[in-house]
Amino acid sequence: MTSQTKKFIELSDVISLRLKCKSCASELLIPSSRDIDNREEQGKLSECPVCRKDWALVNGSTCESTIAKFMSSLNKLRAEMKSFPAGFFLAFEINNDEVPNDEKK
Predict the structure, then answer these.
(1) Whole-angstrom Cα distance, residue 81 to residue 88?
(2) Average pLDDT for the chain
C-alpha cells in the first residue's frame, strides 16, 4: 500500500519571500505586502546584505525584476480573489519532500 500526503497553501498564507544566501546562509525575509517593484527598492537584491556576494545580479544579468513582478502579481491576484466571485478556490501545492538536515535550522 502506498500513502501520499499533499500540502496546499492559500494565497493568504503567503506572508513573506525568503532569500537565503548560498555563501553565508544569512536570510532575508521580504513581507509579501512590501512593494519591491518600485524605483526605491531596485538594486536591493543585487547582493547579500551580510557577505556582499552576488545574489540577483550575476555577470551583468539580473533576476531581481522577475522576483519583484512575482511578488506584485501575487499581491494583485490575492486582492482580486478576495473581491472576485470566482467559482473556485485557489491554492499552491507545495513539495512534501523531507527537508535536508542542513536546512532544518
Answers:
(1) 10
(2) 88
